[in-house]
């Protein structure tokens, strides 16, 4: 296949020298790689001011957008509302989340096609219409396919999945976002991010023996914990960083999501040149080489890093020991030499039931070949594996190549189940026999997350994260305390055998190969393409534009719910069984606020319908008000809407007739999402006024007609006894965001501008 988006990459690189030059003049000191990429992608062009880390909100112009099948549905349904004939930046959709692992690749894929056919058909047709590259079910995991085909040094990408950060393995700034952000960028708008803090990780020495790139991030997670990277980009550098393979760098960046980091990245070097060339992108290497000095941090930065990073960590790869992290959290690190004593002290089950290799974190050719070298030794010495084995290749290209090179055959000699090239068990898409019995057990895997219930739904499954080669050794031994560096295994003749350290090719010596990568190019002109959505579908529903503001004050509003305490996006729009309705706004709205605690009765999903006096479920009462033409409001506590950036949490109240959400304080992304959907997201000027809101009040917004930036709004509370009082509400709407409100939503405004332009 030809190189994707070569002209776009060329255009990005042509701007680099002048953009870096402008940033240097403004910042007036040497620059880190992260700063270079960010300053090179400012929406307004060349830098004119210094942006303050952790403080400044900055508009950026990402080079591309990537989406997976679970999140793409609502994002693309919204994009249809923008009235654009084509996406403004190169974008792709990858079908990897809706395939459950159970029997094996072919049967599992076929079952998913049968169950999710209408979702896949919709995604295929809408991608075809709007100029979006579509990767079919079975083509591979979004982040692995991205690294093999699209990632490029110095690029900026956003994706609707938290592990988009994998792209840092090829020197990108790649960031996971909510669907609404992706829609903005695809519609040609800017993308906003708080300018990140910087954590530097200096790697010295070289990996040896049983240690792998995975151990670097397992160690970093142990040091920083699951919150330690929040609001920061982690930049890796040093001789140790240069010695790692590009896919190894990808593994490290991928799991940066587990420390809360905005993203992680590495400077452009020979390992990236090798990987780009091996994956058919020698032309990208030729372009990158012309500006190579701009695709890594300045030498002064790496010589004296404490001056330039907000935090610095140093790791010596020569002495780094293989790690096993867990259970139940990816930041609890244990070196392999201490695992037996740690496990015994904590009562963790020692017998390993399953070893799983793959996921977007560790499914490269190098990962598979190193793990296979351990399996090969066991087979040769007559050692029978004590645990079950499963692998998920990262892409069809990796799967085809490892089959050609005999690696799959090696795994199969040990009875390994080869699952579809998809996320599978890593995201809980695993129909594991016996998981429903909820027995206490241990599994080891090469994934990134190991929270309770994540892989198989069993809260008593103790999942441990480690490298693919350690997964192989531990699964063969069946013993969590097994240390392959020192311990031996007994073979079928009763002999003691010590496994030799793993070895494997960084890249296939015969090159990558694939018959059908699973890619569908979009139509050159999509104007005649029909988007396929059945009228009676329960899983997909075309969106209708939200109504424009009528220009009047809002009178006679009722209280839907006054939420007490923590109210995250999970409380507002739960995931789990609701995932299947991610593309159907009306059906998924039946989960709206069902997790929020009602301040008046302490219960979830039970509120009073003020029209009838009876109690009902929150969505049902909202629908009753909407049907009667009565506006409603939601009142909330502190940090309302924290958690996942899912836009459903803002779209559902909008759809069910809620006009305003009034709280003590908002989580930033949720506040923005409410604004984008044409809602009023307001805060109490005096937090104590939260207590004045009574269950049976009626609400009037008496000066909404004068809505303006920086000007408070007045809410009149009409109590049941006829008494009235006014309270003041604050907002953070700028002029453009008020235009979103007036137009009914940000997308409505884009559409209006398109038609008038």
From TrEMBL:
SUPFAM superfamilies of this UniProt entry?
Aconitase iron-sulfur domain, LeuD/IlvD-like
Query: Which Gene3D superfamilies does the UniProt entry name for this protein?
Result: Aconitase, Domain 2, Aconitase, domain 3, Aconitase, domain 4
Q: In which pathway does it act?
A: Carbohydrate metabolism; tricarboxylic acid cycle; isocitrate from oxaloacetate: step 2/2
Q: Which UniProt keywords apply?
A: Iron, Iron-sulfur, Lyase, Metal-binding, Transit peptide, Tricarboxylic acid cycle
Q: What is its EC number?
A: 4.2.1.3
InterPro entries recorded = Acnase/IPM_dHydase_lsu_aba_1/3 (IPR015931), Acoase/IPM_deHydtase_lsu_aba (IPR001030), Aconitase/3IPM_dehydase_swvl (IPR015928), Aconitase/IPM_isomerase (IPR050926), Aconitase_4Fe-4S_BS (IPR018136), Aconitase_4Fe-4S_dom (IPR036008), Aconitase_dom2 (IPR015932), Aconitase_mito-like (IPR006248)
Q: According to the UniProt record, what class of enzyme is this?
A: lyase
Question: Per the database record, which ranges form the Aconitase/3-isopropylmalate dehydratase large subunit alpha/beta/alpha domain?
Answer: 36-478
The biological process GO terms on file are: tricarboxylic acid cycle
GO CC terms: cytosol
Q: What's its catalytic activity?
A: citrate = D-threo-isocitrate
The UniProt entry, under PANTHER family, shows:
ACONITATE HYDRATASE B (PTHR43160), ACONITATE HYDRATASE, MITOCHONDRIAL (PTHR43160:SF3)
State the protein's name.
Aconitate hydratase A
Q: Which organism is it from?
A: Fluviicola taffensis (strain DSM 16823 / NCIMB 13979 / RW262)
